[in-house]
Batch of 3 targets.
Target 1
Amino acid sequence: IRPGEKIPVDAEVLTGESLIATAALTGESVPRAAGPGDAVVSGCINGDGSLTVKATKAFEDSTVSKILELVETAAEKKSKTERFITRFARYYTPVVLVLALIPPIFLGDWRGWIYRACAFLVISCPCALVISVPLAFFGGIGAASRAGVLVKGSNFLELMADVDTVVSDKTGTLTKGNFRVTEVIPAERISAGELLRKAALAESMSTHPIARSIMQALAESDGAWTPDPGRVSGTENIPGQGLVATVDGRRVAVGSAELMKREGVEAFEEAADGAATVCFVAEDGRFLGTLLIRDEVKPEAARAIAAMKREGVKSTVMLTGDRKGVGEAVALELGVDRVHSGLLPQDKVAKVESMLDGLGGDGRRLVFIGDGINDAPVLTRADVGIAMGSMGSDAAIEAADIVIMDDDLRRIPAVMRIAKKTVRISKQNIVFALAVKTAVLILTALGLSNMWTAVFADVGVAVLCILNSMRLLAVRKTV
């Protein structure tokens, strides 16, 4: 498997060392080191090293195939909401037709009753219902599209009006999925700039995401700095621990606590930030300081979650394949109510299944937000699945019911607001149309109205309901 290639089947590494990007499958933002004897799973991306592997499972039994199977089985469990108007119109028109023909047959006065029967049939025409109600949902879908959200069906828009629980993936959904140095903690007798410069020089020959974040941090603080390969030699990657390089004739180590112990460094201090990836820096066995590197949280995420709660969401939950400390720190920062960490795709499905069972059948709905191939089964199983359309995987977009085209989480509470307004307007149309038609039908049966009144009860009511539905085109796009 060459650098940059996707791992096709679950396998075991025979020779070679590399970093495997598992974010699309597990949600873990830090690439995982793989060497001889380690297992690698299908769907992950090989990093900068070549690997020779031995397949341990047939393609149909591999991880990606199991995920696709989960998508299919989850789709079978998803219930379909029948539209009220479709059921109503199925019985409404035949009943009214029979009622219009009974009086002339049994009561005589054919001329008078035939006139009333014709008026009866004009009034009872369900155009106002079968046009205005779907038009309200079309208007809601159009309003959502103007706000940058693709809704794949009116039933999903209707479900968004009754959201009780919002469940979300972390990496790529609540966070940006890229790294940034958030804090530089130098040891005594060394400046923050010198610490960052030594770490960046040591990492300058590496393509690891953490190495790129360190070099970017130095470039931002010192615009004149550029990598100087001539000052660096003997770069050695230690899988799962970090990197050691010779910088200006001195041995510089950048990596984990295990690497510090391996280099004989004893004075380093553990960092307290559970959400950060911690990089210790040492030179010739002397501890220089610590760099805290975090996956950046989307700036709009906290505001979006708060807006969802204002729209009636009772509970927010985060599911992630990342480690517990990272998940809990991000959840605390964003105001997420609950977090479940270290989950594989099948574990996420099981968690959502248990939450759906907890909601019961009283009209409360569960929404799941995700972006990776590992989220596809959960997106399908949830009452409404929402995918990131800009950076999300094709599998997630295909499985989702709603797609946010620009990945802005603030679109979700906006869609909830549009959904509530859509349902409210559709109910107004139903009540108004039925009330007017019922009143005019009674007046016609009593001989107190004429054909012009009947025409208003049909065409006039339909036009008024259509105008009412058009109010959906005027909505705010975000919170």
Note: The longest strand covers residues 175-186.
Target 2
Amino acid sequence: MTGKWTERPEGGGRAALRLLIAIALGLGRAPARMILYPVALYFMLRRGPERRASRAYLTRVLGRPATARDVFRHVLNFSRVTLDRVFLLHDGLQRFEVETTGLDAAHAAVALNRGVLVFGAHFGSFEVLRALSVHRPDIEFRAVIDLEQNPSVSQLMNALNPALAATVINARQAGPAVVLAMKDALDQGAFVTLLADRVRPGGRASEVDFLGSRAPFPTAPWEIAAALRVPVVLCFGVYLGGNRYHLYFEIMTERIVRDREGGRPLPEWIQSFADRLAARAREAPYNWFNFYDFWAG
């Protein structure tokens, strides 16, 4: 059964996030980061399922039994990236050092067709990619985000930057409406970004190899890409510590051709995505932010 991640609430809640935003914008980033140590410790001690999921994942990716210190570092990294979302949405990139690899090649892919689908994962920072759009007015980014999974948090975060909030395509709309909104944005030459690692409840999945075991990945992103016939680019926003992030772009294909048209079966594309995600996870293991049993769905 897939979709179990929806049964777990996001870390914190509306009141906690309001407090975090007030502290962050009132005191600044450095004092707010100091407060994250007790916050991360509390989260680690109080959220047993997430703690166990972190330990199981880290044991896989590190190739050794994960320790309590590893789990704390993992949760602290998640807390730091969550805090940085506040500043990225409120101030853009001005507080951060953000390197990019492959962005110009990805931008050139727009010329191959109408727009570009950018696939990412719950790995590192998605907000860095959104904030990049402010500093690259030559590229329009449209993010496909489920605004209903945690609506109060989405409302608060998006209130920090109404202009960016207006570019969001709500993934909770009926399927055809989401695809039509994506097509409209792609027709205008936009980069349409979405996360392709979590299977929604009732959604179709393909089980592929990921970090040593079979894990379910959603097929919907790849079905949409095949139907819209646009280039697919991968992007992972890796948190490097301090105020440093690195956005890695990689062109995956100019167009996904279905196997019935002489191309590859979709599971092969999904396996390629899983392989690239696994490689990034091994390079930066504490950037993985799926705090549930990913392999069980």
Note: The radius of gyration is 18 Å.
Target 3
Amino acid sequence: MQELLLDVHRRLAERYIHLKWWPADTDFEMACGAILTQNTNWRNVEKAIAGMKDGGLMSPEAVLSADYEFLKECIRPSGYFNQKAERLVILSRFILDLPGGTISGLAEYPAERAREMLLDLKGVGEETCDSILLYGAGFPVFVVDAYTMRVFTRLGILESKKYGEYQRMFMDNIEPDAELYGMYHGEIVEHAATVCLKRSPKCGECVLAEICERKGVAES
């Protein structure tokens, strides 16, 4: 399994050589993006992030001091802006209570405790939590999303809907390495968003085609 997973990574890395993921200028922007990407696509997140930047809201202090209606308007392009505004406020309070008042302060805690702390926050599920742990605080945890499940189901490597099963598959077979995990997750996201599409995947352009069983493709 380790050899297979690393082969997939190698093929994707050769295709997406200039990929930067998570695309953010600061840890706070990254954490906001993890909230804003819930139930939407990244193009809408970029618009919402731009709205926050234009509104001077790219710090936890600014979010907490902002007019609440103004905050909602800034992130409107991401959808579910009422819920997400509340979650950004909760996240901002949480961040300011961390050592140093930044996401990197999570690194002062054991990984399991840091994960528990994030999952205790309203609106933070496993994917959001692990994205912040990996890309914001540098913990070697593999992030799983719908793209991961789609790609690896089609490859015939794992067919499941359970987050933990996919995460264990990666973390039990690839040595803990935050940089590698981040690159691999980003490659999966880019590949699924541009080639391994939910409908009408571009199999003729796929760098994984020769090792792919195409499970479920005919029905997608």
Note: Residues 2-20+143-214 form a domain with the Endonuclease Iii, domain 2 fold (CATH 1.10.1670.10).
